[in-house]
Amino acid sequence: MQRVFSGVQPSGDFHLGNYVGAFRQWVADQADHDTFYCVVDLHALTEEIDPAYLRGKTFEAARNLLAAGLDPKVSTIFVQSHVPDHPRLTWLLECTASMGELRRMTQFKAKGRGQETVRVGLFTYPVLMAADILLYDADRVPVGEDQRQHLELAREVAQRFNTRYGETFVVPEAAVPRVGARVLDLQHPDRKMSKSVESPLGTIAMLDGPEDIERKVRKAVTDTDGEMRYAPDEKPGLANLLALLAVATGRRPDVVAAGYTRYGDLKRDVAEALVEMLRPVRERAAALAADPGAVEEVLSAGAARAHEIASVTYARAASAVGLLPSTARRS
Ligand code: TYM
Predict the structure, then answer these.
(1) 79 in the Ramachandran plot: left (φ > 0), alpha (ψ -120 to 50) or beta?
(2) Pairwise CA distance, residues 127 & 156, whole Å
(3) Collapsing DSSP states into helix, strand and coil, what is residue 119?
(4) Quick one: DSSP state of residue 17?
(5) What value does the mean pLDDT of the chain take?
(6) What is the DSSP letter of 79?
(7) In the structure, what pLDDT confidence band is assigned to residue 80 with cuts at 50, 70 and 90?
(8) How far apart are CA 64 and CA 13, in angstroms?
(9) What mean pLDDT comes out for the span 304-327?
């Protein structure tokens, strides 16, 4: 069975982009893959984040992954910092990756732009991400479009390591959905929907209720020519709505476009379809909120299973580069 790994940062509320670009695939992959899903709290430290907020959001993220439809009986769901092999392997991979290739990462350039100081961790972030993936011998990594370049880097680093030290890592493939891989901000269709709180009206939270979803979709920015066609470059706002309705109803965006003449009618149906798509997620979240013990158990079992696998991969990599195995006894 193929192995799947993916991760999400607990740095804010999950939104429609996370659900459509990533979580839907994560849920679908459970049927026929060995699936590992991780709340990447170490990645959240690469930018300013309040410690108490991080702690709360990490727990909430795990709960909301269950709400999104992950089944802990099938998937291994865990918190990155609970498995010590992630930072350990990161070091070996930092000694494999080059400054030049990290400097080319567009996310680093975007996040670092205009900052007075940039944390070293923000620069090496994609290496930690490569370690996440390679530790589990993942064949397939379901992600949205914005992670594609990081996946390329993980592949490069794995290949270089294998060439230098002998076959050690599985070289992973990115799995990016054909539609919905880049959900745009409803108010600013020139940028992706994101966890930052700058655009509350442009962001649909995964747990938003029907009224919020309807209001945000109604106010979504489109264009003034009124021409109904799927043209992501020329008409990004409209294309975004068409893509969302396509994803929610299992059709192609151009086919969806052919069924409408008026933007208002389209928006009404987009809102309705999103409300229905997210209804079971919201219902599961409400049920889980009443049972925090259940989430704790999932994370504790998840960390144990993840560690079992990750520690073996780490030992293989450490041995390959020539680190002497420790024989120290631990009590
Ligand atoms: P993060 O937390 O930003 O996002 C989690 C997942 O959601 C996808 N996504 C989107 N998809 C479509 N439209 C959007 N507007 C949108 N916004 C986010 C992301 O592509 C991602 O799949 N570095 C990663 C987390 C990570 C990871 C990993 C992922 C750490 N280690 C190993 C895969 C494998 C991140 O910050 O994702």
Answers:
(1) beta
(2) 11
(3) coil
(4) H
(5) 96
(6) E
(7) very high
(8) 9
(9) 96
- 3-state DSSP assignment of residue 27: helix
Which atom of ligand 1 is closest in space to residue 143's alpha carbon? 22
- Catalytic residue flag (residue 219): no
Q: What is the percentage of the chain residues whose pLDDT exceeds 70?
A: 99
pLDDT at residue 330 greater than cutoff 90: no
Question: What are 219-260's pLDDT values in tens digits?
Answer: 999 999 999 999 999 999 999 999 999 999 999 999 999 999
| Alpha helix (H) residue ranges in 195-327 | 210-218, 236-249, 253-258, 263-289, 292-321
Q: Per-residue pLDDT for 57 more than 80?
A: yes
pLDDT attached to residue 249: 96
| 8 ligand 1 Cβ < 6 A | yes
**What type of residue is 216?**
K
- Mean pLDDT for 42-52 is 96
**Pocket lining: 274 vs ligand 1, CB cutoff 6 Å:** no
Please tell me whether the overall predicted TM-score, pTM, comes out greater than 0.90 for this model.
Answer: yes
Quote the pLDDT of residue 48. 93
Q: Residue 215: count other Cβ atoms within 10 Å of its Cβ.
A: 12
Question: Which residues make beta-bridge pairs with 37?
Answer: 6, 77
Which string of b and e fits 269-280 if b means at least 16 CB within 10 Å?
A: bbbbbbbebbee
pLDDT given at position 331: 57
**Strands of the 173-175 sheet, one edge to the other:** 76-79, 34-39, 3-8, 140-142, 173-175
User: Is the C-beta atom of 129 inside 6 A of ligand 1?
Assistant: yes
Distance in Å from the first CA to the final CA of the chain? 36
List of residues 6+ apart from 27 with CB closer than 8 A: 68, 69, 70
Give one DSSP letter per residue of 190-211, joined into a string: TSB--SSTT-TTT--BTT--HH
Q: Residue with structure tokens 């990155």?
A: 80
Is 111 annotated in the active site? yes
d(CA 213, CA 284): 18
**Is residue 64 in contact with ligand 1, taking CB distance under 6 Å?**
no
**What is the pLDDT at residue 197?**
67
Nearest CA, atom 26, ligand 1:
7
